[in-house]
Design goal:
The protein folds into 2 domains: about 260 residues, 3-Layer(aba) Sandwich (Rossmann fold), CATH 3.40.50; about 180 residues, Rossmann fold, CATH 3.40.50.2000. It has 18 helices and 18 strands. It has a 9-stranded mixed beta sheet, with helices on both faces. β6, α3 and β7 form a beta-alpha-beta unit. The longest helix is centred in the first third of the chain and has 18 residues. The chain starts with a strand and ends with a helix. Bound molecules: adenosine-5'-diphosphate and alpha-D-glucopyranose. The site of adenosine-5'-diphosphate (ADP) has 18 residues, from α1, β13, β14 and α13.
């Protein structure tokens, strides 16, 4: 099938979290499964890679038309088109007060950009709120290129917390959509809600783990959309993310001092030593790593609250992350108070992330909710056992006391309980058997690509 895959970030060109990883790997797996895929994403100022500019197109936007540039690239059989506009010439991908307007422009440009590169899709696959306007645009939008009106849509929820909420009338004006949509799924308590609009208008809705698909139909995890999701549950399913096993492979990872595998773990020891040396950590203690966006979702405050007891259990802590100021500051202070035991690097650093996944003994993932989570899968592939909260995709990918450790309650006591279990196992021979089991786990994208293929066929009506 011809799949138009739309995402606000795509590895290796742009990435703030797991959505970038997924948009980097899933299209490749879809191509291997026989689909033809065009990925469309913004042409950020910070884009890694140099698309070839092939011209401009006029996107219907904000009561008129906006010129956007089109840049193209091809990588391993996948075609990429990047949407260029001054609105994407900023230091960060997101986090600005006008994000909704910026991504309305992006979404509105997608059909014109696809037409410009000669791609008329069988199905459009939109991801998260940034491209969630597409199902509405394709159903009701004016000025669509031939072949686009009414194209079926699949919408994937990677994180229900971010919904793209804005003023209803203004949003319809930006999107050049009819005012009749004021009384549609776009309207959530009088505001435009991009996420709910897509859930309502898409033919099929997926989320990134079976566990999260079930959780978001409950008020505790539904962020106000659980009622809508329950009502439309007939078209909702969870498909577990895979891992790009070429990018995340300890046997060929250029960021590590030496390659290693389950058969020969000596390279992992070298990664551990490199990590200790870089952060001047005492070598005798097991290392607990964290690689994470620093936001409430991820429960990093639980690590901070439990820190004295974690150190008391014998752990050292190495954190790499960026996000909310209070968490960044808390981590900086913790590192300053506990030199030789706690290290914190604030920022986004792909290379260091690889070294932590390899060099740490365990990875803390104490998330309050986790749609899928890739970091625990990466850690397992590197023989680093996750200590994670039993929620969403974490619960679906980790087996307690077999290839990681799970706790139920999102509080410091819960985390400490699981960290204590891990600490005991670390002193036993069983730890190495668990490492080998974790490293042998199957996380490839092939199975998920198959499941998406079925969802595309359902959306298409086949
Ligand atoms: P989320 O998408 O919610 O952030 P995931 O676990 O699905 O969580 O994916 C996170 C991805 O982002 C992983 O590839 C992880 O290694 C990466 N990542 C998170 N924070 C950083 C950082 N500060 N530096 C480098 N990589 C990071
Ligand atoms: C989101 C979720 C994360 C998931 C990722 C990719 O960022 O927070 O759990 O793994 O998307 O689907």
């Amino acid at each position: 099938m011809k799949v138009l895959f739309v995402s606000s970030e795509v590895y290796p060109y742009s990435k703030s979290g797991g959505l970038g990883d997924v948009a980097g790997a899933l299209p490749q797996a879809l191509v291997k499964a026989g689909h033809e895929v065009l990925v469309v994403s913004p042409w950020y100022q910070t884009l890694k890679g140099a698309p070839l500019w092939i011209g401009d197109v006029a996107a219907p936007f904000d009561g008129g038309f906006s010129q956007v540039g089109v840049g193209t690239l091809e990588r391993q059989g996948v075609r990429y088109a990047f949407v260029g506009h001054s609105q994407f010439q900023r230091d960060q991908l997101y986090g600005y007060p006008d994000d909704v307007k910026r991504f309305c422009l992006f979404s509105r440009a997608v059909p014109q950009v696809a037409e410009r590169v000669g791609f008329v899709p069988d199905v459009v696959h939109a991801n998260d709120w940034h491209s969630a306007y597409l199902p509405l645009i394709l159903k009701d939008g004016w000025h669509l290129p031939a072949g686009f009106p009414g194209r079926p849509c699949v919408f994937s929820i990677h994180n229900l917390q971010y919904q793209g909420v804005s003023e209803l009338e203004a949003t319809l004006y930006w999107l050049r959509l009819p005012s009749s949509l004021k009384n549609s799924y776009l309207n959530h308590f009088g505001s435009a809600n991009a996420m709910q609009g897509a859930i309502g208008f898409a033919e099929q809705v997926t989320t990134v783990s079976p566990g999260y698909a079930e959780e978001i139909q409950r008020p505790e995890y539904g962020y106000g959309l659980d009622g809508t999701l329950r009502h439309l549950s007939f078209k909702l399913r969870g498909i577990l993310n895979g891992l790009d096993t070429e990018v995340w492979n300890p046997a060929s990872d250029p960021n590590l001092p030496a390659p290693y595998s389950a058969d020969d773990l000596s390279g992992k020891q070298q990664a551990r030593e490199a990590l200790c040396e870089r952060f001047r950590l005492g070598g005798g203690r097991p290392i607990l790593g964290v690689v994470s966006r620093l936001v409430e979702q991820k429960g990093i405050d639980l690590v901070l609250k439990a820190l004295p007891q974690l150190l008391g259990q014998g752990w050292s802590l190495v954190v790499l992350g960026s996000g909310e100021a209070w968490l960044e500051e808390g981590l900086r202070q913790a590192a300053a108070w506990h030199p030789g035991q706690v290290a914190a690097v604030i920022g986004h650093d792909e290379q260091l992330a690889h070294l932590i996944y390899a060099g740490a003994d365990a990875l803390a993932v104490p998330s309050r909710f986790e749609p899928c989570g890739l970091s625990q899968m990466i850690a397992m592939r590197y023989g680093t056992l996750p200590i994670a909260r039993a929620t969403g995709g974490l619960k679906d990918t980790i087996i307690h006391d077999q290839d990681g450790f799970l706790f139920t309650h999102a509080n410091p006591e819960g985390l400490l309980w699981a960290a204590g279990q891990a600490r005991r196992r670390y002193a036993e021979a069983r730890w190495e058997a668990m490492m080998v089991r974790a490293m042998s786990k199957e996380f490839s994208w092939a199975r998920s690509a198959q499941a998406y293929g079925e969802v595309y066929r359902l959306a298409w009506g086949g």
